[in-house]
Amino acid sequence: DAGITQSPRHKVTETGTPVTLRCHQTENHRYMYWYRQDPGHGLRLIHYSYGVKDTDKGEVSDGYSVSRSKTEDFLLTLESATSSQTSVYFCAISERGLRGNTIYFGEGSWLTVV
Amino acid sequence: QQQVKQSPQSLIVQKGGISIINCAYENTAFDYFPWYQQFPGKGPALLIAIRPDVSEKKEGRFTISFNKSAKQFSLHIMDSQPGDSATYFCAATWRSGSARQLTFGSGTQLTVLP
Question: Which tens digits make up the pLDDT trace of A26-40?
């Protein structure tokens, strides 16, 4: 699609275990985002990155951490997964930081915490 | 204040009819208003977008109407087709911290009957 690969695409994990989702892009875009999608809430921003090692919190960042050691990879970590983190997670990339129509979403990662 | 309120939650339209989805916002710092279309199992994809200094934008069968004074905007899908059946999200962008951010409405599930 827009050179975005999310992995894993589906995962079931147990409460209390750590989970890492990976977003990989081939477009060399500066901005990367992690959103979660839940029924009735649309998509909500978890964390975003505006460069290597430059990250900031979004609307629903509690319980999540991120890292970006390379331009192409943006990792989302749930340190100790909870059932409330069962959701669909979307990575997005943008060249110009959402100015204009430059944001592209990945295919999503379905996470179930049991 | 970063919210965008979207209605209706679901919409059923006959083939050939007009689908109308409405959104409202409060934050005057919003400066770009995109609409996203999402099919099941896929990430959201940009459909059409408008700047607040424009009252209407049309692309094919899709039209955004924007009322800046009322802080409302809407998506009109003319001659709706079964292939338009999807979830539609309105959104708004604004500058926050080191990057622009994007906030979504809660989504409208559109079903176009054949």
Answer: 988 888 999 999 987
Of B93, B98, B106, the CB nearest to A42: B106
Q: How many helices (H) and strands (E) does chain B have?
A: 0, 11
Inform me whether the C-beta atom of residue A88 falls under 8 Å from chain B C-beta atoms.
Answer: no
Please indicate whether, in this complex, the C-beta atoms of A101 and B49 are within 8 angstroms of each other.
yes
Half-sphere exposure of A101 (CA within 13 A, CB side): 11
Q: Which two tokens stand for residue A109?
A: 């990662």
Q: What angle do CA B83, B15, B111 make, to 5 degrees?
A: 55
Partner-chain contact A42 B32, CB within 8 Å: no
| Cβ neighbourhood burial of A63 (10 Å; 0-12, 13-18, 19+) | middle
Could you give the CA distance from residue B73 to residue B40 in angstroms, rounded to a whole number? 25
Chain A residues lying within 8 Å of B35, measured CB to CB: none
DSSP count for chain A of H helices, then E strands: 0, 11
How is residue B26 written in tokens? Answer: 């409060």
pLDDT by residue (tens digit) across B34-59?
999 999 989 999 899 998 899 999 99
Determine how β-strand A54-57 pairs with β-strand B108-113: unpaired
